[in-house]
Amino acid sequence: MPSLLVVVFVLQLSIHLVNTLWALYNKLPTPTSASASESERLRADVVRLKREMNATSSQDEFAKWAKLRRQHDKAVSQYEEKSASLTAFRENFTRATSILRWLGTNGLRFLLQFWFAKTPMFWIPRGWVPAYVAWLLAFPRAPTGSVSIQIWGTACATVIQLVGAAVVSGWVIAQGKEKQELKEKMGMKAEGAKGRETKKEL
Asked: What is the DSSP letter of 23?
């Protein structure tokens, strides 16, 4: 039988993954990922066209301003339609999975915490922490001097969230460095090509 320590940790990890299910689902090659990407593109178009309209005088450049206004209104209409469709699917998806998510994650967690409320996860050596800290670590019903399943579960959830945030941040930084290196290489190639053209002209 697996250790209760490991069971609680795996359960907290599962809760973390399930709670980010929608974000992960949108990143997969699914119909909703395409809809989400299209919605983001339309939103960017709306913002861009709005800025161009604000930078164009409706009196001095009426023809250009009117064209931008038509493009803006069309982009807003498409964005609202796509956003409404995506929101409706998200609500249906969340409603259909909410009960299963709760029973499989938080429901199981509450059951374990109730059933093993008096079971110590592990013991703290005597004298390592003050009495009030020992009482808090044993909260609510574990023997004093031990760590309760509630405190252990909270600690696991905190560590998992911190590690997850660190992994995401590291991935974003790595992607940014790769893009920067690619831009530098392209710039060096462009400069080399210009240098060769200049030499040929000379």
From this structure: H
Q: How far apart are CA 30 and CA 24, in angstroms?
A: 11
Distance CA 84, CA 87 (A): 5
CA dihedral 50, 56, 59, 61 (to 10 degrees): -120
Q: Which regions in the chain score pLDDT beneath 70?
A: 1-2, 22-34, 94, 97, 185-202
The closest alpha carbon to 149, from 12, 15, 11, 5, belongs to 5
pLDDT of 2? 59
* Residues in the chain, overall count: 202
Going by C-alpha positions, the residue among 107, 111, 115, 144 that lies closest to residue 129 is: 144
pLDDT of residue 1: 42
Contact 8, 142 (CB under 8 A): no
Rounded Cα gap, residues 119 and 4, in angstroms? 10
Single-letter code of the amino acid located at 114: F
The predicted model scores a pTM of 0.51
H or E stretch including 123?
strand 122-123
